[in-house]
């Protein structure tokens, strides 16, 4: 008999799970590629119309705000529903927004507010995709592969990011805006169809029921808030998410404004912006490959906090001080390189500590805590750039004397200064979190969800149960 109890021909459940994971991953690569091309094309279209950073920041806000705000409800429903079907419906709904915008653009009727509305609809359904996919991965592969799987997912996301901006910029350059944008949208429709087709043919295991899952059952409202109560009762998990809460606020203030900064400093050259974004995607691929082959540091928290500190210095700060495309691309590459390590290490911690049958609810709450600051940052980034930093850095402005030597005083320099400041603050948050024991020692303080309780833990749980019964009596 094969040592695992499975026939050598099928490779065992672990091998089958990895094959399913890879198939789903391929589908997501196609979907991300098409969405990335459409997003890039519409950024160029909108910036040529308005010429304002606020327009692009608001587009990001309208997409991301529903993604975060609907997360608790989505998490509760994901744990009730079939996760494969949930992912399919999410991909379909997001793809249909492109189907709706295509005839509007072709007829000349597409307006900026249509783009915002389509983003809000897509963002609402994207709220279901993250918890469904994250929880599905946990049931598909062994725990030892969580870090590598997160790295491979980052590779997939970044690989699509390499080709999407360059391919979209090339098509726009070849066909022009009026013909190029519809062509890109048609490609997007084809790619999300591939993703849905793959999900139709794969099987994703259902998670086993646990005591935590049974305790979480109830009405939709109870299940929606369960994830928050679960995290609040575990200081280490809450501490990790509060670190992301701060870093996401700071980082989003900067990264939201990279496209308008590049366009302002490069004379609206779409190829320059595409090259900078592709350099970032290449960095993400390299970081993802490193994470998938390495699996991350033995103590995952070093991947989270150390990665944040390094990303701030070598990412936003370098992009801000860079005088031209070479350093913008270098900063974009290095920033994206650390993201798979940060996110992969964090994801592996959560997948190991949280029982699979409640991960939809817990991961959705986790997302809201960590990312609620992102819509806020997106909402204020554009006005800060257009009304404070850009006028202030111009020749004779209030900021030009102190910072003009660092970032210049021409168009886009105010945004560059914002990037520098955000990079420094992000590094400070990552380093300062090492001073909090609940965060620094999270992996030691929290048991894995499949770990057998120690005798002392069992006695404590029994004693706690007896105290609760006495109180009820």
Q: Taking Cα atoms only, what radius of gyration do you get, to the nearest Å?
A: 23 Å
Sheet with the most strands, sense and barrel status: none
User: Level of helix content?
Assistant: over 70%
Distance between the termini: 55 Å
Give the SSE string. Answer: HHHHHHHHHHHHHHHHHHHH
Strand share of the residues? under 5%
Count the E strands: 0
Contiguous runs where pLDDT drops below 50 for at least 5 residues: 1-10, 454-473
CATH topology: Growth Hormone, Chain: A
Find the CATH superfamily.
MFS general substrate transporter like domains
Structural class: mainly alpha
- Number of folding domains? 1
Global morphology: globular
**Total number of helices:** 20
If classified by CATH, what would the architecture be? Answer: Up-down Bundle
Mean pLDDT: 79
CATH top level assignment: Mainly Alpha
Please, could you describe this protein's structure?
- This protein is mainly α.
- The chain has one domain (12-203, 219-458): Growth Hormone, Chain: A (Up-down Bundle).
- 82% of the residues lie in helices and 0% in strands.
- The chain is built from 20 helices and no strands.
- It has helices spanning 12-50, 53-69, 71-80, 83-106, 112-140, 146-201, 211-216, 220-232, 235-255, 258-265, 270-294, 300-321, 325-353, 359-371, 373-393, 400-407, 413-432, 437-440, 442-445, 455-472.
- Helix 3 packs across helix 5 and helix 9 runs antiparallel to helix 17 (413-432).
- The radius of gyration is 23 Å and the shape is globular.
- Mean pLDDT is 79; it is low at 1-10 and 454-473.
């Amino acid at each position: 008999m094969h040592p695992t109890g499975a026939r050598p021909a099928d490779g065992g459940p672990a091998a089958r799970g990895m094959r399913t994971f890879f198939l789903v991953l391929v589908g997501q690569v196609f979907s991300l590629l098409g969405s990335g091309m459409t997003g890039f094309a519409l950024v160029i279209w909108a910036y040529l119309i308005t010429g304002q950073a606020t327009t692009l920041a608001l587009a990001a806000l309208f997409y991301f705000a529903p993604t975060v705000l609907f997360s608790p409800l989505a998490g509760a429903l994901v744990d009730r529903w079939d996760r494969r079907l949930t992912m399919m419906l999410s991909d379909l709904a997001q793809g249909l927004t492109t189907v709706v915008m295509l005839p509007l653009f072709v007829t000349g009727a597409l307006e900026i507010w249509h783009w915002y509305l389509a983003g809000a609809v897509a963002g609402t359904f994207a709220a279901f995709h993250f918890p469904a996919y994250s929880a599905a991965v946990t049931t598909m592969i062994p725990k030892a592969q969580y870090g590598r799987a997160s790295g491979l997912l980052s590779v997939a996301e970044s690989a699509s990011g390499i080709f999407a901006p360059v391919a979209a910029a090339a098509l726009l350059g070849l066909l022009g805006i009026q013909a190029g944008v519809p062509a890109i949208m048609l490609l997007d429709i084809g790619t999300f169809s591939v993703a849905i087709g793959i999900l139709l043919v794969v099987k994703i295991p259902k998670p086993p029921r646990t005591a935590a899952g049974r305790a979480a059952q109830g009405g939709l409202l109870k299940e929606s808030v369960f994830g928050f109560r679960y995290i609040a009762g575990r200081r280490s998990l809450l501490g990790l998410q509060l670190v992301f809460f701060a870093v996401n606020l700071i980082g989003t203030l900067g990264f939201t404004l990279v496209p308008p900064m590049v366009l302002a400093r490069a004379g609206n050259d779409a190829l320059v912006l595409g090259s900078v974004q592709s350099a970032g995607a290449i960095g993400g691929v390299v970081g993802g490959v490193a994470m998938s082959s390495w699996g991350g540091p033995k103590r995952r928290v070093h991947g989270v906090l150390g990665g944040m500190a390094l990303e701030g210095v070598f990412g936003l700060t370098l992009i801000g001080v860079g005088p031209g495309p070479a350093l913008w691309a270098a900063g974009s590459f290095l920033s994206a390189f650390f993201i798979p390590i940060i996110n992969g290490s964090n994801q592996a911690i959560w997948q190991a500590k949280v029982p699979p049958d409640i991960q939809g609810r817990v991961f959705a709450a986790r997302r809201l805590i960590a990312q609620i600051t992102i819509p806020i940052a997106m909402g204020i980034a554009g006005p800060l750039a257009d009304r404070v930093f850009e006028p202030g850095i111009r020749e004779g402005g209030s900021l030009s004397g102190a910072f003009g030597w660092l970032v210049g005083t021409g168009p886009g320099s105010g945004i560059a200064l914002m990037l520098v400041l955000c990079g420094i603050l992000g590094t400070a948050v990552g380093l300062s979190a090492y001073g909090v024991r609940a965060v620094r020692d999270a992996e030691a303080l929290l048991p894995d969800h499949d770990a057998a309780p120690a005798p002392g833990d069992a006695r404590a749980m029994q004693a706690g149960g007896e105290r609760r019964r006495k109180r009820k009596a």
